[in-house]
Structure formats: C-alpha cells, structure tokens
C-alpha cells in the first residue's frame, strides 16, 4: 500500500483570506452547542482554529454562566 501523497495548493488571486471576518450569521445556542460538543468530543482539529473567536451573548446569559462557573469550582 502506497503512502498517501500530499498536494500543495497555492492561494488563488481571487480568494482573499481575511484574518478577521465581521460576524454575519446569527445562530441559536440550541443549534450551535450540539455541533461544538461533537467536534470537541471527537477532537476535530478545525475547532482549534476558532477558539480565539469571540461570541456575543446577552447580559443575562453572561450572568448565569458566571454564576455557574463560580458554583462548579472546587473550593480550595
């Protein structure tokens, strides 16, 4: 069995990758979280590319998440 061959593709002039992209798609947590959970559980590497991306959440969800974070930390 032959080893797989790697192919290198040069960037085409019409494809311009941006380091930053403005958010343009709205999605519910109900749709998003299961997909992220599967990707994390199965250790898909592409997820690492987005770990520094910021998401915008409502203030009440932020408060709930902060409280949850505080409650689940083991006391020292």
Helices and strands in order, then pairings?
Elements: H1 29-41, H2 59-72
Question: Mind explaining what this structure looks like?
Answer:
The structure is a single chain. This protein has 76 residues and is mainly alpha-helical. The chain has a domain at 29-72. 36% of the residues lie in helices and 0% in strands. The chain starts with 28 loop residues before the first helix and ends with a helix. The mean pLDDT is 82.
Terminal Cα span: 55 Å
Structural class: mainly alpha
Secondary-structure element string: HH
Total number of helical segments?
A: 2
- Biggest sheet record: none
Average pLDDT, to the nearest integer? 82
Radius of gyration: 19 Å
> What's the β-strand tally?
0
Can you give the helix content as a percent range? Answer: 25-40%
Q: Are there runs of 5+ residues with pLDDT below 50, and where? A: none
| Shape type | extended
Share in β-strands? under 5%
Provide keyphrases for this structure.
76 residues, mainly alpha, 2 helices
In short:
The chain is mainly α.
């Amino acid at each position: 069995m032959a080893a797989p061959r790697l192919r290198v593709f040069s960037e085409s002039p019409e494809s311009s990758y941006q380091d930053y992209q403005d958010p343009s798609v709205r999605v519910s947590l109900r749709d998003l979280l299961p997909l992220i959970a599967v990707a994390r559980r199965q250790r898909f590497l592409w997820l690492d590319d987005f770990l520094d991306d910021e998401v915008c959440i409502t203030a009440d969800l932020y408060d709930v998440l902060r409280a949850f974070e505080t409650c689940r930390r083991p006391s020292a």
